[in-house]
Amino acid sequence: MIGPFPPPVHGQSAATLATAEMLADAGFDVRRCDTGEGASGGRMTRITRLLSVMMRIMTGSERHIYISANANLGMSITFLLCLLARIRGRALTLHHHAYSYIGARSGWAAGMAKAAGPDAMHLTQCSGMGAELAARYPVIVRTLPFSNVGFVEKQTDNGPQQGAFTFGHMSNLTEDKGLGEAVDTLRKALSDGMDARLVVAGPCSDDFATRTVKAAKQELGQRFEYRGPVYGADKDAFFKDLDLFLFPTRYRNETQGIVVLEALSYGVPVAAYGQCCVGETVGPEGGVVAANDDDFAGVALQLAAAYAADPAGTRAKAHRQFQRHTETHQRDLDAITAHFHQVAVRMSGSAAVTQSSPQ
Predict the structure, then answer these.
(1) What is the residue-averaged pLDDT of the chain?
(2) DSSP-assigned letter for residue 163
(3) End-to-end Cα distance, the chain
(4) 145 near 276, Cβ under 8 Å?
């Protein structure tokens, strides 16, 4: 398995670790090749690890290689790894975590698809993402969905909150992730006479986020609360405080949003833009999905009004949406495990033929 493993913890490293543990639990001999920056966060660590991985592909005995696909310029590395694996006759499974090269064509991604070949299996966060990937790069013909819901535990819904209606937003806070739209939703709610507040969590990851948080504190006072990065009990408390989660992301690599699944797991409905798998994740009962040209605040406040009319029912629907994802995910896991078993059988047979052929 080639990809970043924690530390540091982010979506891709968490997914790689979870996949490794899933395959190990299923009885596979999993050999980890960490290409991440490690705790030090140094570029030299990554370079050293990548060189080691390339050597291992060329000289190692592993017949099936899993690659966690990179995004942006990192796709050039994924292309090279696929090319080396194909030269050595390895079976390939690629796991995709970014939308940028699916929403728009990338030359490096096209090279990756061609290097991996039509026999490669491609794992994506939802079936729609797989279909879009295959349509963008027709050489890709085999895809399986593998939702991030496997990383999220179902939580107990504490029911509607008392006091002011509480909107929530959590991410690595940036302009593209929708912090501005979240604050605008609170402004519109207050201008409409709604007793509301906004709780924001996560690190400020760009200058826009730093400025926006500071300005919101000054403008909105106690109606705006910034909690910074939250983990463990603090993260649990964040979701338990919410009536509605806001996810107006336009981030080019966004695929599904683990935080969307986490909100649904608490019975918190979600208002979001529908990039990649986000719309499929929110679904018909998990909240509302705005079109890219919609007024996000207006759409979110329509959901807030529906919530106010039936808070318990709205939360129950969000919980049911999460439960649907967990049930579907189990079927997806069965299909992925079957895929790995089939590759193991096929490659073992190929190895036996290769060993006996000189005689």
Answers:
(1) 93
(2) S
(3) 33
(4) no
